[in-house]
Each structure stands twice: as C-alpha cells, then as structure tokens.
C-alpha cells in the first residue's frame, strides 16, 4: 500500500480525493494548509504528493520549492483552478512533476498518479534499501538518512548502521559488529565499537524518530521501535 499526501484546502474536494484514493487502495493523509503540508511532506515517507497551489499560509509554489531545496525528490502533482501556460510553467519550474487544472475527472487524476508512481518506482529499481520506520539505508548508493534528511556518515558508521538495520528490533552483539565492520587483522577489543556507536547516535537519533539505537546491556545494540511496548 502506497502513501499519498494531499495538500488541499477545499472542504469538498480534499475529502473527496481522500475517499476516492483510499477506495483505490492508497493510504491517504490530508492536510489543509501550506505550512502543515510542508511539515508533513518533510517528516513523512510518502510515495507521492498532491499539492494545491492556492493554499492558506504558504502557497503550493513555495511549498514545492521548499521541498526541492530540502532535497526531497518525492513526485509532486500540482492542482490549480488557474488555467494558463505561465501558471503551468511556474509550477513546473518550482519542481513539480505534473500539473492538473480543476475541474478534472477521477479517471484523469488516477492515470496521472499511476504514471508518476511508476516513474518513481523505475527510478529506484535495482537498488537495495533497508528500512526501519522512517530510517533508511541505501546499500547501492552507500547513503543513509531519516525521511528526507540524509546523514553524513563515515564508512565505518555506515557499516555499523547497516548491521543494525538488517534486523531492526533484534540485538546485534559487539563481536558481530566488530567481525563485520573491522579488518580481520584488527586485534583491539570491542571498546572501539562503543566509540563509534556514540558518534553514530549523535547523527542518527532524534526526538521524533521512530527507531533509535538502544544499548542491550552486556551484549550489544539494536534499532528499537519507540512505539513498540516492551
């Protein structure tokens, strides 16, 4: 099930879009102003964003520009009551992937959404990505982050995070991390793992994060789901 964020303030159109897309099997989040839309887009892991232009607070142009400036590459379909090539050009220039003029049929909307979702799937095909909640580790590109925010990790920090992300919510011993990350010729003890975990926590853990690095006393570490009761 793919997540779609709708940013639309029309009291009839917004709920109607949510009902229609939910009926098509999508998981839909609806917000009604530009500031909240920007916040939710940056905090979430949506497959696609449906973004109205005329919004309270930040308009759609500014929201889209802010998302692209932050490095978020999620496909954006802009909706507007305006009809003109200059409006369309401005929307596309801010980083939107497609543009739909109101009123539109549900058939056309769904076709546009499917095309954008296929494009996003094709762009990531062949890549191996580990996920634990909002945290991701891209094994192909050797990159990691939380939502749209990418971490600046050293090679060893990336390797340790990969060890933990392979089995989220399950402990990994210090010895296992040492064997996988360090050269076999290394003769030091596991204290070095503790040093790197401390540095990794400063980059990875955050108050709003779904998963954090937990110490398993006398054993090692695990990526823990904060919402899961223990």
Which stretches are poorly predicted, pLDDT < 50 over at least 5 residues? 122-127
Give average pLDDT, whole number: 84
Structural class: alpha/beta
Number of DSSP-assigned strands: 12
Main sheet specs = 5 strands, parallel
In order across it, which strands form the biggest sheet? Answer: 2-1-3-4-5
H/I helix tally: 8
How far is the first residue's CA from the last residue's CA?
27 Å
Query: Using only CA atoms, what is the Rg?
Result: 21 Å
Task: Encode the helix/strand succession as letters.
Answer: EHEHEHEHEHEEEEHEHHEE
Any idea what the shape is?
elongated
Helical coverage, percent range: 40-55%
**What share of residues are in beta strands?**
15-25%
Architecture overview:
The chain has helices spanning 13-23, 34-43, 60-69, 85-93, 106-123, 155-166, 174-181, 191-204; strands at residues 3-7, 27-31, 48-52, 76-80, 98-101, 129-132, 135-138, 143-146, 149-150, 172-173, 211-216, 220-225. Strand 11 and strand 12 (220-225) form a beta hairpin. Helix 2 packs parallel to helix 3 and helix 6 (155-166) packs across helix 8. With 230 residues, it is an alpha/beta fold. The longest helix has 18 residues, at 106-123.
Question: What would the keywords be for this entry?
Answer:
elongated; five-stranded parallel sheet; single chain; 40% helix; 8 helices; 12 strands; four-stranded antiparallel sheet; 230 residues; alpha/beta
């Amino acid at each position: 099930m793919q997540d779609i964020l709708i940013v639309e303030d029309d009291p009839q159109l917004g709920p109607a879009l949510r009902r229609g897309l939910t009926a098509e099997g999508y998981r839909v989040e609806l917000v009604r102003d530009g500031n909240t839309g920007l916040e939710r887009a940056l905090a979430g892991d949506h497959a696609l964003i449906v973004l109205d232009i005329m919004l309270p607070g930040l308009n759609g142009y500014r929201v889209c520009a802010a998302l692209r400036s932050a490095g978020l590459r999620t496909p954006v379909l802009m909706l507007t009551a305006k009809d003109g090539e200059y409006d369309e050009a401005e929307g596309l220039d801010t980083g939107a992937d497609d543009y739909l003029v109101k009123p539109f049929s549900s058939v056309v909307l769904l076709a546009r959404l499917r095309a954008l979702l296929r494009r996003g799937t094709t762009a990531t095909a062949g890549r191996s990505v580990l996920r634990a909640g909002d945290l991701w580790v891209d094994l192909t590109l050797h990159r990691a982050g939380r939502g749209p925010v990418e971490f600046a990790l050293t090679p060893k920090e990336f390797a340790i995070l990969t060890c933990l992300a392979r089995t989220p919510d399950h402990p990994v011993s210090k010895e296992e991390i040492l064997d996988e990350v360090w050269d076999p010729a290394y003769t030091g003890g596991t204290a070095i793992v503790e040093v790197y975990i401390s540095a990794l926590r400063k980059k990875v853990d955050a108050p709003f994060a779904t998963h954090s690095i937990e110490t398993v006393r006398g054993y090692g570490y695990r990526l823990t789901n904060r919402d899961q009761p223990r």
